[in-house]
Amino acid sequence: MTGAALADTREDTPDHPGSPTPAAGPEAAGKPPGLGDLLAPVRGRLLGAVVAQAAAAVCSMVPFIAVAELARALLAPGGPDEGRAWAAAWTAVAALVARLVLYTVAGTLTHYADADLQLGLRRRIARHLGRLPLGWFTENSSGEVKKAAGDDISTLHHLVAHTALEVTAAVVAPLTALGYLLTVDWRLALVALLPLLLGFWFFKQAMSGGEEVTGRFFASMGRVDAAVVEFVHGITVVKAYGRTARAHRAYDDAADDFAVFFRDWIMSTTRASSAAGFALSGPAALLVATAAGTLFVTQGWADAVDIVPFVLLGPALTGSVMGLAQSGHAVQGGMESARRLHALLATPPLPEAPAPRPLGQAGLVELSGVRFGYDDTTEVLAGIDLTLRPGTVTALVGASGSGKSTLARLVPRFWDVTDGSVRIGGTDVRELDPAELYRQVSFVFQDPHLLRTTVRDNIRLARPDADDTAVEAAARSAQIHERILRLPRGYDSVIGDDAVLSGGESQRLAVARALLADAPVLVLDEATSFADPESEAAVQQALSALTAGRTLLVIAHRLATVQGADHIVVLDEGRAAEQGTHDELLRLGGRYARMWALQKGEAR
C-alpha cells in the first residue's frame, strides 16, 4: 500500500521542512483547549436555539400561572371576575401553542447544528490524520483513534442537541415561576425556595471531584476499548496456540478495573444523590408549599386564595432542575471528549516544504549520517550512510530490534530523521511534496492492510483513476488474478464479507496494489512472512515482477531470500556493522557469516 491516498487529503501549510507545524487555534495562543472552541462553527445556531428554548420555557410556566390567576379571579372576595378569568384561559391556550412552536424550532436548530458539527469534525479529523506522519499510526492503537474519531464525536451529540436546551429550560422555567410568586407573596416565595437550595447543596456534594472522576471514567473505558481491539486483532494467533484464557486476561483485568471503579464511584455518590432527589421531588416541594401556606393562612398572614399559586408552581421550581444532574454528566463527558479531540487535532502533522523542490535522478536513494530516536532519550539509529542505486536490491538484515524496520520506514518518511538526511533523486524527502514522495516510493509490509471494500478498490487504492484493465494486469503480475475470479463476485467481492483471503493471498493483493502504483522505489518488509508454503512461490514470483527495474530496499529475516542482493547491510544496535555482497560478507567471517551458518544449520 502506498501513501498516495493519505497524501491526497493533505492541506497546504506554511511550515518549513524539519520544523514542527504550529498548532492552530487556542493551543497556539497558549489558551487551554475547551469545548467552546469545538462548538465555534455552530455557535450562532446554538445561541438561537437557546433563545427559542428560553422563550419556550417561559411559555411552559404561563399555563400554570394562568390557572392560578383563574382561581384567584373566580375566588375573589368581591365575586368572580369573568373578564379576568377568560383572559387567563386564552392566555394559557396561546402559551401552549407558542411553546410547541418555539420548542420545535429550538430542537431543530440544535439537531441540525449537531449534524453539521459531527460532519465537520469527522472531515477535519480525517484531513488531519491524513497529514500525520505514517509512523504515528504504529505508535497509537486503533482503539484510541477509534474512540477519538468515533466515540468522542458521538458523545458530543447529547451535549449539543439536548443538554443546552435542558439546561436553559431548567434555569429559565424556575426563574419565571419564582418571578411570578414574588409578585403574589415574597415571603412564601422565599419559603418555596428552600427545597431548591437544599437540593443544590446535596448535588454539590454528589458532584464533588466530578472532573477528576469523569477523566478516570473515560480513561478506564479507553483501556477496555483498547483491550477489546487488541484481542480481536490477535484472535487468530491466540486460538491457534490455545492461549485464549491468557488472551482474555487483559480484557478481564480492564473490565474488572472499570467495574471496581464504577461501583466505588456510585457508592460514594448514592447517599448525596438520593437526598438531592428527595429534596427536589414534586411531593417534597408540594409538602413545603402546603405546610407554609397553611401556616400563613391560619396566622392571618395571607388569604387562602393566595396559596393556590404556590401549590401549583412550587413543584415547578424544583421539577425541571432534576434534569440538571444528567446534564451535568453530559457536560463533563463532553469536556473530556473535547480534550481528547483537541489532543488529536493538536498532534503536529508532517511538516511540508513551503516550496517543494523537484526530483533529480528517479530511483536514487541516499541516506547520509542518519540518526533517529522515537524520543529524546533513546537513539534507535546512529550514523547510517547508505546509497540505493536505481535497479539494485539492498537488503537489511540483523537481529530483532536492530533497527531494520525503522530504517526502512524512514525512506517513505514515516518519521523525520533526528539528524542527517534521506534524499530521493537528490532531494531531501522533507523538501518533496508528499504526493510526489508517494509517487516515488511504495511499500509492502509484513501485515498488509486491506480495506473493507471491493477487491478492485483495494488494488487501485494508490491510483483511484486506474481502469479495470490496469487493475487486472497488476493482479495477474501479482499471481492473484485467478484467485480473485474464484471469489463470489470476482473483483467486486468485498474484503471481509464475501472475500476472505489467506495471509499469502493478502500479501499478493498488496503486491498488486504496489505494482499498480508503479513507483520507482520499493520497500519490502519480509513480504512473504505470512505466506503458507504452497503460496510462497506465488508470492516470490509476484515480487519478482514487482522489483524488476526498481530500486528495492528489503528487510529479510531469512538470509537465503536475499542471497542474490546487490548490497547487504547488517545492522547491530542501530549501526551498520557490516556491508557488502553475500560472498564478501561470508569471507569477512563476522556477524553475517555467523547468522548464515546458524540459519543453514537450522535448515538442515
TrEMBL record:
Keywords assigned by UniProt?
A: ATP-binding, Cell inner membrane, Cell membrane, Membrane, Nucleotide-binding, Transmembrane, Transmembrane helix, Transport
What GO CC terms are in its UniProt record?
plasma membrane
Q: Where is the ABC transmembrane type-1 domain?
A: 47-333
Which family does this protein fall into?
Belongs to the ABC transporter superfamily. Siderophore-Fe(3+) uptake transporter (SIUT) (TC 3.A.1.21) family.
Q: What is this protein called?
A: ABC transporter ATP-binding protein
Q: Which organism is it from?
A: Streptomyces roseirectus
Q: Which residues form the ABC transporter domain?
A: 365-598
Chain intervals with Low complexity compositional bias? 21-34
Domain of life of the organism encoding this protein: Bacteria
Q: Organism classification, top ranks?
A: Bacteria, Bacillati, Actinomycetota, Actinomycetes, Kitasatosporales
